[in-house]
Each structure stands twice: as structure tokens, then as C-alpha cells.
Amino acid sequence: MDFGGAMNNGGDNAVHHVDLVSWYMDIPPVSRYYLTGAFLTTAACAVDIISPFSLYFNWELVVGGQVWRLLTSYLFFGVFSIDFLFHMYFLVRYSRLLEAGEF
């Protein structure tokens, strides 16, 4: 992004920008899949492809055959809002640290 020289450091003509694809690919694989799944699940609910009521965890429904509820209850973070952005930020930040750290 070029903000008309606003990010021009020391007079050099270097252009500073964030490459979204390289940032995404730098996320470790499990964290990247979790971020993608959470975003796609929330997006599907936002455009009414699926209902949030079909995602929540209910043990009686899981035993009754709706086993996807074991996974989807961890993927839905509510509607798109600033709260959703904070959830995604902390999800990526801390899952990346867990995945890259040594035990």
C-alpha cells in the first residue's frame, strides 16, 4: 500500500506493503486450517447458507447422528464484526505460538 509517501522512511523510495498471501502461507498448517475453517463457517452463516443453530454442540443431537457438531462448535465465532476480527487475531496469534513452540 502506498499512502502518498506517508511510510517513506529517511527519504528512500521503498514501498512498504503487506502481502496477504505470503502472510497467510507463513501461518503454520494447523493454525491456517483452523483460521480458514472458522472464516468459512462464519461466512456461510452470514450469507444464510447454513444456520448457526445447526452448528452448536448438543450431546443428544451428536448421539443421534449429527457428529459434525463436535467440530463446528469450535469454528463459529458469531457475526462479522470487530469482535470477530479480535477472535481471529488471537486465534492466529496463540495457535501459531502453540504450534511453533517446543514442548
In brief:
The chain contains five helices and no strands. It has 103 residues and is mainly alpha-helical.
Keywords:
single chain, 103 residues, mainly alpha, 5 helices, globular
What do the pLDDT scores average to? 81
**In what range is the share of β-strand residues?**
under 5%
Residue stretches low in confidence (pLDDT < 50, at least 5 long) are 1-7
Radius of gyration, in Å, reads: 19 Å
**Total strands:** 0
- Biggest sheet statistics: none
The topology string of helices and strands comes to HHHHH
- Helix fraction bin: 40-55%
Structural class: mainly alpha
Number of helices: 5
What characteristic shape results from the CA principal axes?
A: globular
N-to-C span: 38 Å
